[in-house]
Amino acid sequence: MDLPAPELHALLSRVVDTAVARHESLPTARAVPAAFPSRDAVPGVLPDEGVGAEQSLQEVYDEILPFLSNSAGPRFFGLITGGTTPAAMCADFLTTIYDQNTILHSPGDSIAASVEDRAVEMLADLFKLPQDEFTGVLTTGATASNILGLACGRQYAGRVHFGVDVAEDGMEGCGAFEVISNLPHASVVKAMGLVGIGRRRLRSCDLSVDSIETALRSVPPDVAPIVVVSSGEVNTGRLQPSLPEVSALCKKYRAWLHLDGAFGLFARCSPKYDHFTDGVELADSITTDLHKWLNVPYDSAVFFTRHERILRECFTTTAAYLAPPDHAYSTSLAPTHPMNRGIESSRRFRALPVYMTLRAYGRAGYAALVERTCAFAKHVGEWIAAQDELELLYAVDLCIVLFRGKGGRREGAEGNKALVSAINGGGALYVTGTVWDGVPAIRLAVVNYRTTDAEFDTVVKGLKEAALTLA
């Protein structure tokens, strides 16, 4: 399996050349390939004798790379997709080269876990969270982070409402748990199933404080509430207002407050937008994706909580071949191992791209990124509002433009699907369809650091031409 240095150098040189060429070509490349082969065209047979690294790499170049999206490019607006900064790209190469398992703080072994601690501290600083009140851990994404948040909420609720240590003793002796939420992301509902709360135990409310209090007040005595609020709803970008009042209600009703800030938390990076997130620091737990607005490679997110003890109760792992559990250390300053703050034990060194990009661009760089991408989204939204063929469905607050077709064959579910197909088929940009308030719609989300005013004319031309094909 090993390769002589000259052969390895040749393979890696080709990959590096590809990285540079792709970085240069992204601004002019199609957002998605013009055509795709069938799934069966991808070789999926395990050979008896391997073809070797050189041949395998050539197969990837021939049969896979031409059919990947340009999701790191400036006009890929589907889902909520960031790019990869040059600093993060370099760090991710090094992450693979050094191949660290960020599982433990192991003196004499590696400082990888300490790098993660520093990265999380810098993120807390970026998001204006008091470092003396919050601890955190990097995760694979908002789904994993929301699992952590609901697991901690379940542990807290089990203790204060039922006197049960759920992590140790299970849920016998507990009543039911209920999640009260407005605009919950699908990953929150998924997490409810995974931590044993149950996907059907969701009580919906609207964004108002009165609605949240009504929901809390209606929870039966034998049910423990957990409140989940959104800082950035996926269709509109709406953020939960009045968080100090919501936090006060949660304290009154002894409810854990989890904030899903998958992308909206980044509003705190900018003095122009941070008012949208007033009171975020009062939540019991917070999540945000880093592979969105931070622009680091997939997969990367962070989970924060002000209750480290509860987090450790949920996720501490012990085994003879691992270091002793944290509480057995002789000094109160002993660090918490990453494996005791999250789901995984073995963990990729995903902290290095986060650390390097934060050091490279700093607070000012990310404030400028948030302001530039939000201004671009607002500009596109204003243009859409002035068109006869398109309708803006919600005023642009942050980075998401929500719209639909108007007139001709653009309306209704089939018209919406046809318009999405026409936009994406043109190749200039990529968007995704959705449903908002029962209406088929289209989302255009702007969080890539490479999206600048230079892309505006190309984007609106692509939208206009697609709409006109469905007259």
From TrEMBL:
Question: What is a GO molecular function of this protein?
Answer: pyridoxal phosphate binding
The keyword Lyase appears for this protein: yes
Q: Which GO terms describe its cellular component?
A: cytoplasm
A Pfam family (short name) is Pyridoxal_deC
Q: Please name the source species.
A: Blyttiomyces helicus
N6-(pyridoxal phosphate)lysine: residues carrying this PTM? 292
Keyword Manganese on entry: no
Cofactor(s) of this protein: pyridoxal 5'-phosphate
| Matching Gene3D superfamilies | Aspartate Aminotransferase, domain 1 (3.90.1150.10), Type I PLP-dependent aspartate aminotransferase-like (Major domain) (3.40.640.10)
Q: Which GO terms describe its biological process?
A: amino acid metabolic process; carboxylic acid metabolic process
Q: Which PANTHER family match?
A: DECARBOXYLASE, PUTATIVE (AFU_ORTHOLOGUE AFUA_2G04980)-RELATED (PTHR11999:SF165), GROUP II PYRIDOXAL-5-PHOSPHATE DECARBOXYLASE (PTHR11999)
The entry's keywords:
Lyase, Pyridoxal phosphate
| Domain of life of the source | Eukaryota
- Under what name is this protein listed? Glutamate decarboxylase
- Name the family the entry cites: Belongs to the group II decarboxylase family.
- Annotated signal peptide: none
